[in-house]
Amino acid sequence: MFRENYIIQGKIVCKTGLHIGGSSDAIDIGGSDNVVIRDSVTGNPFIPGSSLKGKLRFLTELNDKDSAQSVIDNDGKPADDPNCIASKLFGVSADESQNELKFPTRTIVRDSYPDEETLELWNNESLISGAELKYENTINRINSSANPRNIERIPKGSKFDFEIIFSVYEDDDENISYLLDAMRLLEDNYLGGSGSRGFGQIKFENIKLSKRTSDYYKENNDEEVIVESDDITEVINALK
């Protein structure tokens, strides 16, 4: 039975260029064939909830021994051991649970869209629809021939509004702290592609953690604001 929702809101700040790949079905002459994903309505880059959630799950699986073992036992697919933290946080798909929906996801990650300040930043003439072109080159080790290419990325300094909802049901462990740990791990990892080459460093800022019990929905009670901070570590400590 449902008990409460934790709402985590704030901003994702790009500390370096961010590349989350999109479709290159319509390539302009002189454009990039390695484009970022864009909102089909506005044409602006955004961060899909699936990309953020997938990375948080991946880091949780690496950070928990039982979850990592479950990934190995599952031939590299997401952890499906019902007792490991990753399954408890992010759920097990119907396929993986053999039609037994034992662990529906506790974590919902919304798509993140640019804030107003970022939309103004993207009015820069050097940017194309909110993205810059990063040029790279590979050199043939034998004949020294060059193979230049470019890749689109969202420029550093861009900010996106994010929202993550963590649901708690009766008999659940209080494991939202593991989700916050994954967010902290992500700040020292990367989001999107080419992270080992400088892309995808992000930081969570203006974080607000609040709790909405079942009475919030039934009786229109106020939500409880637990903490507001620019530091994910302070948010983690507020729950101890």
TrEMBL record:
One of its GO terms (molecular function) is endonuclease activity. The keyword Methyltransferase does not apply. Residues 11-203 form the CRISPR type III-associated protein domain. Keywords: Antiviral defense, Endonuclease, Hydrolase, Nuclease, RNA-binding. GO terms for biological process: defense response to virus. PANTHER family: CRISPR SYSTEM CMS ENDORIBONUCLEASE CSM3 (PTHR35579). Belongs to the CRISPR-associated Csm3 family. This is CRISPR system Cms endoribonuclease Csm3. It comes from Methanobrevibacter thaueri.
